[in-house]
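seq:
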Amino acid sequence: MNIDVLELGPMANCTYLVTQGKDALLIDPAWDMNFLEHTLKTKELNLLAVLFTHGHFDHVRDCETLLRAHHLKAYLEENDIALSALPPEVLQTYSGEQNLKIGPFDIHIIPTPGHTAGCVCLQIGQALFTGDTLFPGACGRVDLPSSDPREMRKSLLKLSQLPDDTQVFAGHSYGGKCSSFIGFERINNPFMRNAIKDEKVIL
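struct:
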């Protein structure tokens, strides 16, 4: 499996092109659809699915044209339908934890509310696409509509329990960095450490 990190748009958004042979997935395509279409065509890829980590505009913004061109529906957790402002005919909605088999890809969808009510992380093998839930050294904002700091702590705790070698691919390259490992974040990310500490206090 190959992962191309495509930093697009004015907010350092990371769109991920995940490929296995000529089969491809796009995760959080929101900006520069012409570039994405050119990339798919140049690499002669077969786009099988589009998946969103959540519904904020900077993660879904211009994807409707791409979805219609490829006759696809994008996977989005149902709690973020209204937030996405996308027409229902271009969405494949679902609720809660899911296991998807799409072509050669086995995708585990992990609900991680906090930044939004419908935030998820997408696990494909040892790669974890965290959207705006988990960044290297940080986590997503929890002061927005449908955000919830308590849910964010629970979500960070859940992610902290994944294997150390799980590689994180975040939704933005803030500070020029979008990738890390769960083992590193468990030790060095203050938000994840506080979530773990809070759980120990409760126990």
